[in-house]
């Protein structure tokens, strides 16, 4: 049957022939599965014609099929086999195929007329509506594209503004950074100068303190000598303090007076001859040797 179908319908592939099932018992032919993606419309048309032809042949050979099927059943000892059934059906169709091709051209012409009619109806109503719908969709897409272009232009403008703002901010930041660097240099210079001033001030303070100490020492020596001369002139401590206060504006401190008094007593004791050994002189010497009371004085430079 496959060979005869190939002769009737040139270009029909082997896979398409394998999908055709002729059922003489029902008088029809079907395709085992849907072929949803034919290579082109001619191949789909050939498959359809092959199915219809197989159905017609199966209906024509129904009686022959029944006889052959009974013989097959007896030969298989009563066992049925679907594959054998399909092969028997196709074999029955192939054994009675007509040799003429005039009926095939008639069927093709009829199918072509039907297709042209469907195309004409579809082109008037459905196709035009579909075309209008496609135009509307294209218009909507174009409008969306224009809107997107407008938004993109706005984004480009904003991006340009951001670039300008960033460039300005970077310039300001660079200026601030330069000022900070300059200030750091100035701070370093000022810090060094301040350290130098601190050193100079310390040196000057040391010199001033040394000079002040020297002056105080010199003045103290002068006051000491004058006080000793005053005391050696048989004047009292109070009188000598007043004299120095009057001459130099200084109140002698208690510590200085006590120190000088001890030194004067030690010098006088070293120069004084030893007293006679009698109770009166001994008592007098003890009374005169007692230390004088301390005076609360203050040294005011």
Outline the structure in words.
There is one protein chain. With 301 residues, the chain is mainly α. Among the domains are: 2-99, no CATH class; 235-289, no CATH class. The protein is built from 9 helices and 2 strands, in the order H-H-E-E-H-H-H-H-H-H-H. The chain has helices at 2-8, 14-18, 41-60, 62-75, 82-94, 102-232, 237-248, 254-271, 279-289, and strands at residues 20-23, 28-31. Strands 1-2 form a two-stranded antiparallel sheet. A hairpin with a 4-residue loop joins strand 1 and strand 2 (28-31). Helix 3 packs across helix 5 (82-94) and helix 6 crosses helix 7 (237-248). The termini are far apart. Mean pLDDT is 69; it is low at 77-81 and 281-301.
Helix content: over 70%
General form? rod-shaped
Helix/sheet category: mainly alpha
Number of helices: 9
Question: What is the strand content?
Answer: under 5%
Please state the CA-atom Rg, rounded to the nearest Å.
71 Å
Our measurement of the CA-to-CA distance between the termini, rounded to an integer number of angstroms, reads 148 Å
Per DSSP E runs of 2 or more residues, the count of β-strands stands at 2
Elements, N to C (H/E): HHEEHHHHHHH
Summed over residues and divided by their number, the pLDDT gives a mean of: 69
Strand order of the largest sheet: 1-2
Q: Largest beta sheet, briefly?
A: 2 strands, antiparallel
Point out poorly predicted stretches.
77-81, 281-301
């Amino acid at each position: 049957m496959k060979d005869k179908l190939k002769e009737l319908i040139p270009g029909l592939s082997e896979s398409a022939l394998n999908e055709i099932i002729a059922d003489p018992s029902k008088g029809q032919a079907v395709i085992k599965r849907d072929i949803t993606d034919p290579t082109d419309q001619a191949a789909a048309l050939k498959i359809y014609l092959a199915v219809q032809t197989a159905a017609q042949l199966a209906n024509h050979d129904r009686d022959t099929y029944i006889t052959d099927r009974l013989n097959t059943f007896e030969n298989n000892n009563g066992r049925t086999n679907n594959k054998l059934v399909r092969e028997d059906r196709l074999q029955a169709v192939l054994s009675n195929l007509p040799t003429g091709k005039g009926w095939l051209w008639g069927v093709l012409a009829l199918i072509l007329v039907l297709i042209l009619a469907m195309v004409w109806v579809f082109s008037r109503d459905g196709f035009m509506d579909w075309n209008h719908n496609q135009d509307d969709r294209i218009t909507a897409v174009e409008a969306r594209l224009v809107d997107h272009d407008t938004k993109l232009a706005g984004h480009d403008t904003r991006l340009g503004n951001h670039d300008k703002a960033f460039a300005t901010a970077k310039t300001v930041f660079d200026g601030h950074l330069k000022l900070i660097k300059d200030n750091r240099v100035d701070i370093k210079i000022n810090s060094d100068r301040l350290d130098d001033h601190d050193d100079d001030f310390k040196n000057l303070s040391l010199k001033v303190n040394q000079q002040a100490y020297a002056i105080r020492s010199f003045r103290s020596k002068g006051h000491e000598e004058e006080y000793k001369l005053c005391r050696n002139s048989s004047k009292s401590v109070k009188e000598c303090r007043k004299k120095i206060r009057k001459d130099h504006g200084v109140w002698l401190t208690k510590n200085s007076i006590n120190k000088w008094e001890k030194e004067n007593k030690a010098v006088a004791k070293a120069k004084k001859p030893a007293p006679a050994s009698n109770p009166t002189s001994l008592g007098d010497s003890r009374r005169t040797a007692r230390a004088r009371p301390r005076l609360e004085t203050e040294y005011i430079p």
